[in-house]
Amino acid sequence: MRAWQVVTPGPMGTGPLRAAELPVPEPGPGQVRLRVDACGVCRTDLHLAEGDLVPHRPRTVPGHEVVGRIDAIGPGVALAADADGATPPSAEPGAEGPRSAAGADIGGGLGSGAGVGVGGGAGVGVGVGVGPRGVRLGDRLGVAWLGSTDGTCVYCARGAENLCPASTYTGWDVDGGYAEYVCVRADYAYRLPAGYSDAELAPLLCAGIVGYRALRRAELPPGGRLGIYGFGASAHLAAQVAIAQGARVHVLTRSARARALALELGAASATGAYGAPPEPLDAAVLFAPVGDLVPVALAALDRGGTLSVAGIHLSDIPPLVYADHLFQERDLRSTTANTRADGAEFLAIAAEHRLAVTVSPYPLAAADQALGDLAADRVTGAAVLLP
Ligand SMILES: [Zn+2]
Ligand SMILES: [Zn+2]
After folding, report:
1. Ligand 2 center from residue 145 Cα (angstroms)
2. CA distance 22 to 19
3. Cα(149) to centroid of ligand 1, in Å?
4. What is the pLDDT of residues 354-377, one digit of tens each?
5. Beta partners for 33?
6. Most buried among 156, 228, 297, 304, using CB within 10 Å?
7. 257 in the Ramachandran plot: left (φ > 0), alpha (ψ -120 to 50) or beta?
8. HSE on the CB side for 185, CA within 13 Å?
9. What is the CA(175)–ligand 1 centre distance, in A?
């Protein structure tokens, strides 16, 4: 199969990614193999290619926003009741209607957790992706950053599997979706909402889910005033969720094109990244990987406000002045990956509120160009690789 590997991490101009012809992988126990229909290009892939994130193994295939259809099922994976492993591809089952995210809190089915069947108590259908209960060939599934956890540590036990020290990540510890096929743990894959194309679904799987977790960690009160710093793939999805839930959203970003998109999507205001929002903020999310913006965003918070940093990588934060940036109980928080419950909640919201997903498609053969464009801020919305 055709695939891309991170060979020599470094600036995109030095060609850190190389195209390769690899054997089609065989699904191991608990895994399914997907034929990849779309794979989003995330900033984290860029951090891996450029060496901001240290490689966990040589020649890894990046890509962790994968939409694909099952074409092989490994041992130990539960089959759908009417599947014998050889059924023809089927449409998304109509019975599995999306369900409200209400009540699907962290730990709502994850706490007890080890391995296959985690979350079995939830009794819910599509989108609640703590492992598709019973699969068949041809099922469309999504693959995200969190590839596996041990299910047994103190963090997993309290529903914080995103903090599991033994976790593995798609496209970092195991090969990801910049390829024609990928093998994944079935219980870490997601059912996907109907009404979106494969290309539109791909960015939901990291940009969408992690942005959603960052938004939740900002603890925006109902009807509150939210600042969003940076307006790329993740931010433009989180903003729509916040607006759908009644927030007044102020976007602060350097790109004039992104400011125009923000206003189009319903933001109350859009201004430069270092500008001031028109009113104090109850909460803010920093999506730009720019540490210089931390004190700027903290200073824009009202008393008791929270700044949530969304990225996996951030340039250095300059010294903070306690009185200006933190006193009056302002909080500064990071976001680390996501739990499967976060993913399920976000995909359920996406099923209920049709999110506008801005996609820039690239052929798989142009993955290096897509990452180069992302590095140079030439991508509008989310870049997505199509086979
Ligand atoms: Zn764990
Ligand atoms: Zn990502």
Report:
1. 6
2. 10
3. 5
4. 999 989 999 999 999 999 999 998
5. 72, 183
6. 228
7. alpha
8. 24
9. 21
